[in-house]
Amino acid sequence: MAKKITNIAVLTSGGDAPGMNAAIRAVVRACSFYNIECTGVYRGYQGLIEADFIKLDARSVRNIINKGGTFLKSTRSLDFKTKEGRKIAYDNLKANNVDALIVIGGDGTFTGGQLFSQEFDIPLVGIPATIDNDINGTDYTLGYDTALNTVVEAIDKIRDTASSHNRLFLVEVMGRDAGDIALNSGIGAGAEEILIPEEDMGTERLLDSLKRSKKTGKTSSIIVVAEGEKSGKNIFELASYIEENMDEYEVRVSVLGHIQRGGSPSCFDRVLASKLGVGAVEALMNGKSGIMIGIHHQKVVHVDLVTAIKDDSKIDNELRRVADITSV
Amino acid sequence: MAKKITNIAVLTSGGDAPGMNAAIRAVVRACSFYNIECTGVYRGYQGLIEADFIKLDARSVRNIINKGGTFLKSTRSLDFKTKEGRKIAYDNLKANNVDALIVIGGDGTFTGGQLFSQEFDIPLVGIPATIDNDINGTDYTLGYDTALNTVVEAIDKIRDTASSHNRLFLVEVMGRDAGDIALNSGIGAGAEEILIPEEDMGTERLLDSLKRSKKTGKTSSIIVVAEGEKSGKNIFELASYIEENMDEYEVRVSVLGHIQRGGSPSCFDRVLASKLGVGAVEALMNGKSGIMIGIHHQKVVHVDLVTAIKDDSKIDNELRRVADITSV
Amino acid sequence: MAKKITNIAVLTSGGDAPGMNAAIRAVVRACSFYNIECTGVYRGYQGLIEADFIKLDARSVRNIINKGGTFLKSTRSLDFKTKEGRKIAYDNLKANNVDALIVIGGDGTFTGGQLFSQEFDIPLVGIPATIDNDINGTDYTLGYDTALNTVVEAIDKIRDTASSHNRLFLVEVMGRDAGDIALNSGIGAGAEEILIPEEDMGTERLLDSLKRSKKTGKTSSIIVVAEGEKSGKNIFELASYIEENMDEYEVRVSVLGHIQRGGSPSCFDRVLASKLGVGAVEALMNGKSGIMIGIHHQKVVHVDLVTAIKDDSKIDNELRRVADITSV
Amino acid sequence: MAKKITNIAVLTSGGDAPGMNAAIRAVVRACSFYNIECTGVYRGYQGLIEADFIKLDARSVRNIINKGGTFLKSTRSLDFKTKEGRKIAYDNLKANNVDALIVIGGDGTFTGGQLFSQEFDIPLVGIPATIDNDINGTDYTLGYDTALNTVVEAIDKIRDTASSHNRLFLVEVMGRDAGDIALNSGIGAGAEEILIPEEDMGTERLLDSLKRSKKTGKTSSIIVVAEGEKSGKNIFELASYIEENMDEYEVRVSVLGHIQRGGSPSCFDRVLASKLGVGAVEALMNGKSGIMIGIHHQKVVHVDLVTAIKDDSKIDNELRRVADITSV
Questions:
Q1: What domain range includes position B252?
Q2: Considering D79, D91, D121, D132, which one is annotated as catalytic?
Q3: What distance in Å separates the CA atoms of residue C42 and residue B164, rounded to the nearest whole number?
Q4: For the segment D82-103, what is each residue's pLDDT rounded down to a tens digit?
Q5: Together in a domain, B158 and B217
Q6: Which chain A residues touch D255 with a CB distance below 8 Å?
């Protein structure tokens, strides 16, 4: 039988994502509900090593569900990549009577957590939080839905100018390896073309497509380009290429950048964070470890951390098809 | 074999919902993609009867994906409730060479559509659009996600005042029969209590709960109340009741009202509308009729209209549980 | 020569308004800049009496410029209305070496402050913060610009429904005595009629006007109604009256309520708060007392508190004229 | 006595700005109010030359007050820079019985308009619309207030990440020649430093300042950089320079770009647009020409176009001072 958990530490690590605060809140509240102590760790794994801890109770997390970022802060830790560093981290947890750990972050966070949990036999559960939605075994990661809304609102603004001036805009959105943000925000923003890392449409086919669009009467266009897009040109080169080959258009570039990571989380992300936070505490109480709490078909699921971080981003072909049809 | 569809009419009916324009756009674009003519019908079923039609092509629906409401407008039609009215509607469709119909709306819309389709043997497909999320067979209806964001943003504003003044706010949200909006927005807005139509917690238990909250150190509180809540008191009576029984609080009421129906759709609703609109056209092309296009487990599904409108709103017990835990 | 100020206390009182936190921040930062100690007072005048104080330094106010409400909280104080209460307040300030006071709020706040300052010879400066914009001697009060944006965004959402359904909406906005919010938001939201406390257009003239609008082809309408409007009917009675007299319209009511007080302040309010906060500290340093720091013609001005709270709300006739012309 | 005006043409030219649609609406409505015909010109001066006209009545401009961009579209016209081009433009106006012209835009628009009006003796009035606020004789240009809100909302999002990671962000905002956007949004967003075109603080002083900030306990920082800033380094070079000289910080760059031009106008801009649009029509009716309608001390004023376009952007020293004090 699983040892009774009496003190759970929680940290956020890696790039911040909207909903992290809501997830911390849910962890803290669930601990309070089940009479478990909760220890906040500042600055991710580095804070574990430096014993940068704070006691958290139900009232510590009031009025944070709607705040972007993470009040526990996040940082990269080189020390945690060493066995020595992890040993110190473990000793600090023990010294503070912490007997389980919840880590909120993306694949880097899970990789470190998985290793730590195995080496030191401390129960550990992960909560997926990254705007890139590139974790296996969960339909959604925290922050992804919010980022999509941020992107479409930004492109809505750009479209005001595009359609006022009959211009072509290339808009770069996040996504080094995964095209989920580009594909969904591209459909949502009514983009004419969407370039994603998972496929290389080729610059010539892009030109053909733009020319076809022009013929059907389109007077302005938005092309959404994922960071990791595979044309071999960066977005500014791509803009020049199009301008050289299509007299009809003035081309402009907008790189949305870091605004995509911040902002007050959407209701979807707040509810998701609440479910996952509660689920993480309950999983630890039930003796689980080495897993991520995900959401699949609207239900909380447990996924092996090893599975969660497996890299196999696949394009959603149905969504690609819908994008092609609705952009005629 | 199904007769080839050559001209699809599309209308919106019932209460408007964010995403209706995006759905119309997807229908029109899919028609264009498949070389099918598309006929817009103004003012719902009444427009069918008055032959208030407009030809729509791919360019007719530019720059509307981000607009709330419905540019085809919506109205109630008493005439369509009569056999004579429906006969005229049918004759108008025939006279305009329309051979299939897509109706976008909620259960009232589907009920009328189901009857019309059976009486006059015209292929008809429904797209669920209502902020109430009270349609069976689809995980989400159009407008629901947007409404949740509108509600949590409004309550975020109210919380500024609540926590500045140590007040208790009762916030009424939509939902005569279904507590989905209240439950999700309540969790998302960090509400202390959530009153929904599916259960009557009793005013005494509410008081007990508020007193417990107060003891745990809460200095302000938000109670989210669905319109159809079952305490037997209206929201103003409820406020008086609490004020009389809890000296500690000044109680205020806010009825969110019609702002919940409007606004630019969220990315989620725009993508959903795009999938459902394309799915509706393709279903008609494949000879389907009398069905709703829904989304289940992130895939487009076909649901009998009769099933879709069956009234059996069930509370999501898991969500109720998460609400209780995260509000400690 | 004025005695050198060494410790300034700051409090917020009355209804909260967006920008209060930004004003506190500016006061604290200006104190830090000039090497003056700063003492935060929780819960307004009541906190003075209860000595509910906190030392504030430049870092205490990080990341609050964009937050609605007031982190120092606000409450009504019956005790402060008594001479005994004010004496205790004064003693508490002296005991904490506070030698000047900045009060952020509206006319009630200023009335109390004016009395207190005279009775106890403590330098006191006011910063006008109320969404109602009903303070004399300043072109703008803190929170007013933000409230206008909140109102027009809400009415934009309602208009989605109004124009989808060809409906008439009555929207109630704040303003018991002053029509500024109604008049400006009414113009900004494109309202057809605007009812304000400063004039009674009469219900018959309202009907005439609506009928004229209908004739010119308007199919939906928004009427913005200030709380303190003088028709003699409340907004629900007004709706019934219109519905009875105009068959053509379905009439709906929306009371915007408390959302108008909250929310992240606009850039305008943040900059205004920064100017006023700095101005208040500098005024005290220059030996001023019994004044409000206002903004007039984009410059910081000093206004006697007695003048500031004088009640003489006047309608802006030019704006009224613009409203009439742009709503044809 | 001035000849009676019977038909006013209106166009938008130059970069688009939020509030242009609201200004067009006000012009059209004022024409309708005064029984003057109104002719919309598509695509600015180029549309004059191509006689790309449309009759506008009061109902043509419904539901556009809240839309960004300009439905009349805007484009650059090389043809209008030639005398021949302007002659054709004039002939087109005469052929359509237009006897006065309202041009909405910035200094380029006014320069062209001034020349045209003098050459061809056609009454012409300008309305200042540009997010840069770089027109003389008016306290505000259309779009400026909205752009400030867009910028602070974007930086609020970036701050979530900055403070979660203890990072330094350089955020580039618009303003080639004028620092108004940078200075106001910098104060509004709580920036630690603000670099503007009107002064070169020097990269060493910047470093000194950042080091001082760090010492006072700041753990993250935002530097707002106007496009036309004078350090001699572009923003990416500036980031590298800081990173090389301050080990303590990871530096990130965000270029806000075109999102600043779009979006639904703020209430302030909608009201301003309404005043200016009405003022423009009334000025023409009163025989005025060669002027811009501006706003000064909250009143509509007439400014010679020659004065309006005079280049003498001056830094607001008081605002600079407030920025320095509130960023300690």
A1: 144-261
A2: D132
A3: 10
A4: 999 999 999 999 999 999 999 9
A5: yes
A6: 255, 257
